[in-house]
């Protein structure tokens, strides 16, 4: 069933749903007794994801992060209680239910491996066990990375940690993982939530959350839901990344952990420190034993590194040659600060109150030395000719912050459970007064060219690498600020009905959210310095040392302090670029009201979830319109109201305790990003021809119909083999288009904007295998193998007008790799832990270079990166570790059309990390 667009207002529907929920809460409770317990290993470590079954009543529970399970209002009688956990022996016991509640206490499981006495809950095996148990018992298709698993790889942030999971890959910035793709869909098509509250995005034009902002030390786990159920907020086509914070109740005792490390990058030869700590404690409050949990986490990291780059930006004339290229050298210092404080108050067995907070700050201090070659006429490698060479500097410090707070309560009354929660998230990106470009120019009559293809090396007279011949032309300065806030409140209520035909849980709820996105930019252009009486115009007046650039020779660096001194001595108001300083300012407000109805039925080996979600959006956008012909500004506003019905049906069938079949039909929804919605409009005239560029606030949301079918087989001790087929049909695909010659722009030579297309299709296969070797009686029993492969393909049509004729061509979805894969080999004893990991993704469409010609499409080449980590436990709870990131020194390469035509080549070098961790396991 296609997501149905609806034009009615939603308040009445939501009011009815909530009214029904509250009215039914008053219904009489007809049942007998509650049964509660907790699952641990024989060292009292809590086991999340354990399966607890009462076969006679066809009831099944999965333990939470605190190891707890509960059955409410069970009929009196004698039953069997069965507990299953991967890596543990099954536990079976007799359960006698009377008229009063039972507290079973801790049920301690024993290891399924003969060679050890206890279940592995730490290290590689323990991390895999935790993740697989949660994945196995999930209602839908999910992939989980626990905090322990995040620590088994040399990953410094959430994004890099997720790249190890099946169906996920990352977009990198300067070699660091930043944005997450799910099943080949670009980051803007996936939602990121923190304990249920959608995180705000700091970047001006995007909805995607850059997960390199969030240190992995602050989290308990990350769960990626690849199927959508009605109780989940809309906002994703590929999947929802749920970041779960740590809680003191996730551990049976007081806990602390402290980590200190130092890193070294080959490119910069500088040391990078990192410190992090976690502390949790359970307290007695108000006469209640173990009722208040306090968890605190903090992290600080500074990474100094760099990269070397050569790029053309697609400036190819395939018949005549290259028109322009640039050499770039980056020096980067990135600082991350993370804080989290979480409180849990549990005054009884049925009441819970919680507070979740997060603050993360990411500062990126970047200096880019550039050498731009503008060839007078296009030429190929080995040719020489006339050119202008520009020595350029860009320097800025950009700070992104993300904060979130979630306050809520869960209450249990017999077979009724309800939850009330309020959340807020704020993100901003601040780039204060900075050097956008400081350009020094020099003309050469002959002798300028390049050699090579992937890596272009400059051919030029010696004077091109000296400072004296370059003269200051212009300095562009900028100041930008973007901010997004999201506030929400939601209420959910459910009731479980125990019947002979199985267990039926009915659930309903409502959610209201407000999102505000704003962006502001100021641009100054300083030029004509000689007319200002400034005589220091040579690069030699601003030079500061030589650039360490191994791909070629660039000559002296431009000193950023000297540039700041120059422009700060001038009156900024005289150099403001009024058009650029106003046209990119905008605000978009979104109010979303939602309600859902859902039912979950379980019997024997079956589980079915079905229901529908309704969402209504009111969007208001404001920006500026600039008429360059008349040289006047005017305000530009737009409003849009939309409603959607989003049905879903998710099912699973257990062939056995080891083998599970899953199937799902769901519908997804993603709203256009803010760059596309911005109501900015520029009207210009060039050679008596009208040209326009503008955003499109009238864009429709992207919707999708999703089909999933798969099978999983779990090993008795530890391991899994699975295969998942998926298909997505996406409607209202958005792309950039030229509307010239069409409708209101019939007389325009150019009218560039964003439009909704027709359908796009994405389909694929996920294969995953994890296996711990056993039964050899030697060192082979210490090996853990993990591999996954995702095969995807996609197609979407883009259209344009040419002399009044509508033309189209087919492209793949941007960011979609046909193949993504991970392979890791782990070796672990009580003292030593080693892991070698390989991450691979095949080429993908990075951007459509020319909508009318596929030869100019830009592709990112395939990428294979090796990472290594080694840990030595030299005392209980004390580890020394050594990591190597990018062991094979893999560069990033993108090309225009075909591989010999460089678009961008960038290399990062290896990073080495030495650290120590203290933990009170």
UniProtKB/TrEMBL annotation:
Protein topology in the membrane: Multi-pass membrane protein
Compartment list: Cell outer membrane
Principal place of residence: membrane
Gene3D superfamilies for the chain: Carboxypeptidase-like, regulatory domain, TonB-dependent receptor, beta-barrel domain, TonB-dependent receptor, plug domain
Domain of life: Bacteria
Keyword annotations: Cell outer membrane, Membrane, Signal, TonB box, Transmembrane, Transmembrane beta strand, Transport
Similarity-based family: Belongs to the TonB-dependent receptor family.
Protein name: Outer membrane protein
Source species: Rheinheimera nanhaiensis E407-8
Higher taxonomy: Bacteria, Pseudomonadati, Pseudomonadota, Gammaproteobacteria, Chromatiales
């Amino acid at each position: 069933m296609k997501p149905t667009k609806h034009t009615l207002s939603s308040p009445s529907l939501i009011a009815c749903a909530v009214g029904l929920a509250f009215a039914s809460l008053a219904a009489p409770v007809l049942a007998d007794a509650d049964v509660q317990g907790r699952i641990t290993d024989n060292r009292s470590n809590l086991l999340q994801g354990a399966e607890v079954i009462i076969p006679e009543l066809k009831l099944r529970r999965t333990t939470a992060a605190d190891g707890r399970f509960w059955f409410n209002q069970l009929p009196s009688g004698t039953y069997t209680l069965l507990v299953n956990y991967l890596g543990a022996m099954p536990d079976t016991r007799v359960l006698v239910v009377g008229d009063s509640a039972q507290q079973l206490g801790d049920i301690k499981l024993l290891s399924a491996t003969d060679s050890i006495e206890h279940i592995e809950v730490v290290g590689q095996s323990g991390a895999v066990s935790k993740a697989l148990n949660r994945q196995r018992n999930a209602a839908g298709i999910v992939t989980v990375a626990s905090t322990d698993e995040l620590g088994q790889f040399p990953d410094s942030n959430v994004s890099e940690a997720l790249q190890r999971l099946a169906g996920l890959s990352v977009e990198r910035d300067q070699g660091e993982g930043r944005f997450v793709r799910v099943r080949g869909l670009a980051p803007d098509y996936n939602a990121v939530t923190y304990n249920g509250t959608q995180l705000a995005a700091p970047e001006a034009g995007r909805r995607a959350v850059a997960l390199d902002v969030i240190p992995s030390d602050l989290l308990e786990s990350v769960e990626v839901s690849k199927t959508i159920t009605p109780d989940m907020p809309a906002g994703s086509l590929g999947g929802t990344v749920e970041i779960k914070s740590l809680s003191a109740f996730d551990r049976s005792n007081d806990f602390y952990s402290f980590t200190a490390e130092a890193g070294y990058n080959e490119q910069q030869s500088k040391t990078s420190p990192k410190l992090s700590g976690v502390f949790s404690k359970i307290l007695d409050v108000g006469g209640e034993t173990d009722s208040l949990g306090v968890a605190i986490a903090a992290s600080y990291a500074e990474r100094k590194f760099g990269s070397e780059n050569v790029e053309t930006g697609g400036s190819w004339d395939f018949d005549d040659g290259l028109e322009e290229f640039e050499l770039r050298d980056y020096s980067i210092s990135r600082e991350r600060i993370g804080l989290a404080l979480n409180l849990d108050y549990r005054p009884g067995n049925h009441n819970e109150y919680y507070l979740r907070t997060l603050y993360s700050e990411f500062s990126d201090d970047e200096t880019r030395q550039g050498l731009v070659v503008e060839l007078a006429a296009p030429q190929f490698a080995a040719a020489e000719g006339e050119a202008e060479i520009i020595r350029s500097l860009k320097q800025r410090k950009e700070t992104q912050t993300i904060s979130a707070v979630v306050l809520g309560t869960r209450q249990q009354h017999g077979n009724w459970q309800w939850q009330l929660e309020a959340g807020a998230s704020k993100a901003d990106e601040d780039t204060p007064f900075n050097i956008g470009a400081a350009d020094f120019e020099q003309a050469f009559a002959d002798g300028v060219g390049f050699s090579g293809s992937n890596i272009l090396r400059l051919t030029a007279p010696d004077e091109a690498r000296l400072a004296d011949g370059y003269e200051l032309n212009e300095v562009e300065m900028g100041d930008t600020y973007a901010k997004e806030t999201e506030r929400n409140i939601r209420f959910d209520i459910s009731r479980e009905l125990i019947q002979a035909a199985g267990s039926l849980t009915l659930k309903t709820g409502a959610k209201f959210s407000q999102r505000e996105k704003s962006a502001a930019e100021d641009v100054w252009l300083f030029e004509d310095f000689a007319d200002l009486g400034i005589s220091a115009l040579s690069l030699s007046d601003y030079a500061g040392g030589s650039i360490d650039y191994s791909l070629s020779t660039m000559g002296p660096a431009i000193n950023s302090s000297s540039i700041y001194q120059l422009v700060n001595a001038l009156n900024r108001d005289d150099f403001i670029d009024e058009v650029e300083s106003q046209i990119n300012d905008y605000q978009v407000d979104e109010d979303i009201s939602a309600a859902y109805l859902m039912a979950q039925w379980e019997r024997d080996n079956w589980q079915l979830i079905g229901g529908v979600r309704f969402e209504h959006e009111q969007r208001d956008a404001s920006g500026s319109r600039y008429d360059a012909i008349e040289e006047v500004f005017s305000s530009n506003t737009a409003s849009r109201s939309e409603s959607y019905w989003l049905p879903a049906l998710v099912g699973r069938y257990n062939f056995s305790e080891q083998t599970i079949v899953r199937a799902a039909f769901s519908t997804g929804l993603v709203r256009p990003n803010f760059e596309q919605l911005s109501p900015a409009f520029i009207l210009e005239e060039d050679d008596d021809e009208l040209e326009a560029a503008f955003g499109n606030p009238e864009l429709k949301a992207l919707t999708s119909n999703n089909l999933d079918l798969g099978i999983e087989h779990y090993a008795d001790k530890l391991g899994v083999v699975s295969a998942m087929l998926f298909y997505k049909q996406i409607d209202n695909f958005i792309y950039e288009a030229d509307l010239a010659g069409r409708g209101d722009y019939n007389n325009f030579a150019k009218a560039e904007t964003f439009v909704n297309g027709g359908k796009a299709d994405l389909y694929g296969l996920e294969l995953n295998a994890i296996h711990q070797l056993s039964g050899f009686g030697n060192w082979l029993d210490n090996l853990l193998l993990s591999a996954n492969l995702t095969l995807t393909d996609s197609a979407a049509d883009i259209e344009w007008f040419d002399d009044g004729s509508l033309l189209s061509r087919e492209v793949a979805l941007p960011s979609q790799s046909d193949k993504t894969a991970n392979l890791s080999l782990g070796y672990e004893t009580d003292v030593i832990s080693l892991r070698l990991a390989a991450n691979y993704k095949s080429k993908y469409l990075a951007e459509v270079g020319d909508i009318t010609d596929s030869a100019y499409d830009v592709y990112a080449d395939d990428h294979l990166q090796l990472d290594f980590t080694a840990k030595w436990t030299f005392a209980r709870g004390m580890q020394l570790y050594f990591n190597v990131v990018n062991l094979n020194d893999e560069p990033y390469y993108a090309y225009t059309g075909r591989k010999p035509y460089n678009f961008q080549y960038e290399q990062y070098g290896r990073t080495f990390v030495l650290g120590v961790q203290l933990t009170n396991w």
